[in-house]
Write a structure and sequence with these properties.
- There is one protein chain.
- The chain folds into 2 domains: 188 residues, Rossmann fold (3-Layer(aba) Sandwich), CATH 3.40.50; 150 residues, Rossmann fold (3-Layer(aba) Sandwich), CATH 3.40.50.2000.
- The protein has 16 helices and 13 strands.
- Strand 4, helix 4 and strand 5 form a beta-alpha-beta unit.
């Protein structure tokens, strides 16, 4: 029996872990046991507990309740707590996802204890070292034994950095989740009716990246652009708690105009709204991809993206963060004229591939 210890802490990780945990329980329960550790990075019920419930993720064996504070303080507290769990559990593998502070803390703790690390969503690069996520993902990749890439571009990034051993292009576990839950979301979500929205007649927006929310000029520009767009089409903004706090602190709330600001949404509601939106505007890597999976045009309010395939295929525009460029991107947004000849994110069986590789490594 292989013992895997999984580290999660934020919404995107809950979604990715759901795919792998589901396949462990359905196909590999006699070969793999999983210990789930929640760092507490996202602790708000709308950002955490509801995802475990809706995605049928097992309750974490450990909740470290580490949240808030500066990056260094948060990561340090997580590192200390994860180390104690690893010493107690003695897993065969540490499984980490993505690029959050939880990811980095888990990777550093395991590396120093000589516990092999498997990094799901390895090889992504924005090439913007001002992003905390870029630092986290580079460091996590460097100490990982297995690097599970979602795309060929991610494999190429690792090769360019001299990383070739243990690299596998398995596809994107978020695509697994999208395929599994898209119909369920349409059947069970009542968000459209509750919010009084009409399918194909609204913009769904999100904003949470530190590079945007911690910069009053960038955040003000995004708010003002959404406010301008809301004059011509309803704009729905499920607001991350940090973003809400920063808008109030910088006194930028008034720039949002008619934008419908609501609390963060449960997973199934978000998936239903993504499928129904005319356009998605975001700075989130996960939401960019979900837009792509569901065939909805997207505007990414950043200067770069890790998910270059969404731009290359015409489904995503990079708008930057000035008012004019965001509004111009909105005016130009449309569905690409033809469907994809080849799909860049795998076949929807990434989780199965990951677990087979882990099992084979132990044999």
């Amino acid at each position: 029996m292989i013992k895997i210890l999984t580290i999660v802490g934020a919404r995107p990780q809950f979604i990715k872990a759901a795919a792998v945990s589901r396949v462990i329980r359905s196909e590999f329960s006699r070969k793999i046991s999983e210990v789930l550790v929640h760092t507490g990075q996202h602790y708000d019920e709308n950002m955490s507990k509801v995802f475990f419930d809706e995605l049928d993720i097992p309750n974490p064996k450990y909740n470290l309740e580490v949240a808030g504070g500066a990056h260094g303080a948060m990561t340090g507290r997580m590192l200390e707590a994860v180390e104690q769990v690893l010493l107690s559990e003695k897993p065969n593998w540490l499984l980490i996802y993505g690029d959050t502070n939880s990811t980095l803390a888990g990777a550093l703790a395991a590396a120093k204890l000589h516990i092999p690390i498997a990094h799901v969503e390895a090889g992504l690069r924005s090439f913007n070292m001002r992003m905390p996520e870029e630092i986290n993902r580079i460091l996590a990749d460097r100490v990982s034994t297995l690097l599970f890439c979602p795309t060929y571009a991610a494999v190429s990034n690792l090769r360019a950095e001299g990383l070739g051993n243990g690299v596998h292009n398995v596809g994107d576990v978020m695509f697994d989740v999208a395929l599994h839950y898209r119909e369920k979301a349409l059947r069970h979500s009542t968000a459209m009716a509750r919010l009084g929205l009409i399918a194909g007649d609204f913009v769904l927006a999100t904003c949470h990246r530190a590079e945007n929310t911690d910069d009053p000029d960038r955040l003000g520009n995004i708010a003002a652009a959404l406010g301008e767009i809301s004059k011509s089409l309803p704009v729905l903004l499920p607001l991350h708690p940090r973003t809400r706090k920063q808008l109030a602190e910088y006194k930028l709330d008034g720039l949002l105009g008619k934008t419908m600001v609501i609390d963060p949404l449960p997973f199934l509601d978000m998936v239903a709204l993504e499928q129904a939106a005319k356009l998605i505007m975001t700075d989130s890597g996960g939401v960019q991809k979900e837009a792509f999976f569901f065939g909805v045009p997207c505007i990414t309010m950043r200067n770069e993206t890790e998910w270059v395939e969404t731009v290359e295929t015409g489904w995503n525009q990079l708008s930057g963060t000035s008012i004019d460029t965001i509004v111009r991107a909105y005016s130009m947004a449309k569905r690409p004229p033809r469907s994809l000849e080849s799909y860049p994110y795998g076949d929807g069986n990434a989780a199965h591939g990951i677990l087979e590789i882990l099992i084979n490594m132990q044999n």
